[in-house]
Write a structure and sequence with these properties.
This protein is mainly beta. Helix content is 5%, strand content 65%. It has two domains: 94 residues, no CATH class; 214 residues, Porin (Beta Barrel), CATH 2.40.160. It has one helix and 20 strands. It starts with 6 loop residues before the first helix and ends with a strand.
Length: 344
């Protein structure tokens, strides 16, 4: 038996194999307006930024309008701002213009700024809902001259599609000092939002709450509203809602009442301190239109940050003002909490 070995052919085959492996492992490349060249792996595009995993700086975010050229191999699904969905063999940008090569690519040209998302989730393509939420709790114990026990809980859940959004929320607090219960309250909220063209949406909300130690046996309201998403970027989000609600209040001591009220909500958040943390503010109010001195205000301010996997912590301040409580009780309640929760 004879074996024939051709050194040149063998080296050529090995070189080709090495080259093929190197090409397969070639990193994505971005060139910025300031001349910087970044190598890494593009993880996604959305909210006007490109997320890139790098060896030298971990995960970084780059604004789309700062990118001159981009080259990334591998099939990708692109969703453009005009609703067009394209499947491309790779993501390529030259002089801030998308290079589209698939047979289904439109004839007109698109800039990188026209790209809304890369590899969108099913709900972002109009299929079904995205479910997100968080369950959190805070426990406080003190032993000594004063024995106190405090337990706070919160559950938030949101179902979001391109057309609408469902929101549910439950908050509660139990507080005891020296075996005497000083607080036991809960509040629940259900909302439905329907998105219109542009930043506007309309919705209906319903809420019920109880705080017997603030003389409130039960308050519930129901009503429609209009909302607007003023800003929606990771660095700063801001939305506002205003509408009318029918309010029914049952008090333990004070006189029961029901009235038509004006209702408003302000939501704001920012990742200014870092992508993994979030500053947030939520304010709601109800004004009695029959008696404008009767107002209920709620304000929550806080900072959330990751702890491990999907577990996060949050430090927050809660202020509640109710002008209708009896004069012998404080109209303003203040709470300071550190919560630990699980997000999904």
């Amino acid at each position: 038996m004879a074996f024939n070995f051709h050194p040149v052919a063998g080296l050529t085959a090995a070189a080709l194999a090495l080259a093929a492996g190197a090409a397969a492992a070639a990193p994505d490349e971005l060139v910025l307006k300031n001349g910087s060249r970044i190598l890494g792996t593009i993880k996604g595009i959305g909210d006007g930024v490109v997320t890139v995993d790098t060896e030298f700086a971990g995960s970084i975010k780059i604004k789309q309008d700062q990118i001159v050229s981009l080259e990334s191999d591998g099939p990708v699904v692109l969703k453009l701002k005009d609703g067009e969905i394209l499947t491309e063999p790779g993501l390529n940008v030259t002089e801030q213009q998308l290079v589209l090569t698939s047979e289904a690519a439109p004839e007109r040209g698109y800039g990188l700024g026209d790209l809304l998302l890369s590899n969108p989730e099913p709900w972002e393509l109009g299929h079904g809902y995205r479910w997100t939420g968080q369950a959190s709790a805070a426990l406080g114990l003190q032993r000594g001259n004063t024995d106190t026990d405090e337990f706070d809980y919160r559950v938030d859940s949101v179902w979001r599609s391109l057309q609408d959004r469902y929101t549910t929320r439950l908050d509660g607090e139990i507080y005891e000092a020296n075996g005497v219960k000083n607080a036991e309250n809960w509040a629940t909220l259900v909302k439905y939002d329907r998105f219109l063209e542009g930043p506007l949406y309309w919705g209906v909300n319903a809420s019920a709450e109880q705080d017997r130690f603030a003389d409130l046996d039960l308050r519930y309201f129901l009503g429609p509203y209009m909302g607007r998403q003023f800003y929606e970027q990771p660095l700063f989000t801001l939305s506002g809602e205003t509408g009318l609600v029918f309010v029914d209040e049952d008090f333990i001591i004070a006189e029961d009442q029901n009235y038509l009220g004006a209702n408003w909500t302000i939501d704001a958040s920012s990742n200014y301190l870092g992508d993994s943390s979030l500053l947030y503010l939520k304010h709601t109010g109800i004004l009695n239109l029959d008696d404008t001195e009767n107002v209920v205000l709620n304000l929550t301010m806080g900072l959330s940050f990751p702890l491990l996997l999907n577990i996060e912590g949050a430090a927050e301040v809660l202020l509640t003002y109710d002008s209708a409580v009896p004069s012998e009780l404080d109209k303003l309640d203040q709470s300071y909490r550190f919560r630990i929760g699980y997000s999904w």
